[in-house]
Write a structure and sequence with these properties.
With about 170 residues, the chain is mostly beta strands. The protein has helices at about 20-25, 70-80, 90-95; strands spanning about 30, 35-40, 40-50, 50-55, 60-65, 80-85, 110, 120, 125-135, 140-150, 160, 165. Helices cover about 10% and strands about 40% of the residues.
Amino acid sequence: GRVMSRSLPGPVTPTVTPESMRDALGAFASGVVVVTAVGPDGPIGFTCQSFASLSLDPPLVSFAPSRGSSTWPRIREVGRFCVNVLAADHEHHSAGFARSGVDKFAGVTWAAAPSGSPVLDGVGAWVDCTLWNEYDGGDHTIVVARVDALGADPERLPLLFHRGTYALTPRVES
């Protein structure tokens, strides 16, 4: 068939800047996860927006902590951790685990995954992992992890992040 010529959606940005990246890629809605582990001084964790299923065989997932993260190096040392997929009513966890210099687990209820890593109460899913490998991701580190155990609550709706804010979860009528 013949290709029709059309104009590109939105203005074309001549220079790719962090701001133009954020503006354009904010169109991609994502879930939000909190990566947790138990360190020598107790439970630790951080919020991460870039998370994906990577491979079914072997079972692998990936996420990308910022190079500036003070928590990821401590979790890396442990080598085992749990990825908590936040549910729609978990904005407080997303914000709380994104802070630094505070006890992020104060008032947080959790149960231990098989690795001992915290599974936050009410998450949509949890993925217990072992560090597989790390790769250079510019100002982030690309972490690949082997899935050792997992579970999900199909009743829980996801926390969605879109264009710099939390988005309403679309409900599918059955």
